[in-house]
Amino acid sequence: MTSYRQVLAVPGMAPLLGVSFLARTAITADMMALTMYVVLGLEMNYAAAGGVAAALTAGVALGGPLLGRMIDSRGARTVLLATVVVQVAFWLSVPILPYGILLGAAFAAGLLMVPAQAVTRQAIAAMTTSGQRRTAFALESVQGELSYVVGPAVVILCAAKMSPDVVAWGVGAAIVAGGAGIALLNPPLRARDETDAGVAGRPPRRQWLGAGMIAVLTMAFGTTTLLSGIDLAIVATLKEAGQLSWAAVVVSVFGAASVAGGLIYGALPRPLPTWLLLGSLGLVTIAAGLARDWPWLCVAVVGAGLLTAPTLTTVADAVSQLAPASVRGEATGLQSSAHSAGFALGSSIVGVAIDVSVPAGGFAAAGLAGLAAALTGRLLSRRSPTRTRSPLPGHDRAGAPDPEPSGTGAQLGA
């Protein structure tokens, strides 16, 4: 665990990860809070609640690149404070908005959601050396997995004991506190050797949004398409077996395995290609469809869990490698949009597969989506020329000599 101690010893890293965890946990809980409000507060059906969640998700997906571009030009603190103000207005007004207006407001709130994840990823790329970066991104991926486990669960528990209005206000307050905390920390988004990156201006998109970056974004989309499908397939399998009450246990095992996988991967001496990790994740997901009851399903999802955080880690690391410093915010925003689109589409694809076949078909559809993205990413990455990560060959991000300059070829498998 020496590598993790070194990362956490980087000045400002521990508080950044702590405050970011608060913000991301609240953000992962926002759709559940709005669902509980529409169903319990407005006494409407789940289809109506799904409409609000879809509006919020669409806003997040479209807003990622927009906010990233603003971060590149205006800086993180300005964008964080602006989005915090929007979130204050939205969450305070949720209990007084009629459903129709709530739909539009949710879209606007998603469009201007606090970019906690994007800022954290950019800061990690700027604050760490080449030897620390993969370990730091592994911690960030583990943080994300924990937020998905904790956030929605806390909302469900609170909704059973207090008003849905209060729950919505609580989630909003946590988002605001997390965003304001990151703004207060104001982490650096460019390393010392990148401080002049903005002076030269933004490079044209065709220079950095090439085959290599599209390969990574495709695999980011495929990863979350697969992951959102796994959750639905687990529920469908256990419902057919009459064991739906065990779904929480299976999902918890899956989350714990992902955390363990992320920590193990971050401590490995060398990275693995993104396409290989995603392709393996697809294969073990298909195999999970063979399980028919909750004990075997717990065993089956361990393999998928162990590969989840490592896959997300390599995607984040590859984006930071391929994006020049002056457009890293926009590139990270595109990554967030790809993740959001995958989450939105995955449950639909797997839902259709389950409806027209059997629950095992859900695992097959999710796994095949991951395999298709891995194959596409592999083919695209082979067309991308290898480029070094640092703008100064032979130097790492902190300006110190880099004995092993990292190129995108190793990360993508080119």
UniProtKB/TrEMBL annotation:
The chain crosses the membrane at residues 46-67, 168-187, 208-238, 244-265, 272-288, 360-380. Residues 382-414 are annotated as: Disordered. InterPro entries: MFS, MFS_trans_sf. Keywords: Membrane, Transmembrane, Transmembrane helix. Gene3D superfamilies: MFS general substrate transporter like domains. This is MFS transporter. It comes from Plantactinospora alkalitolerans.
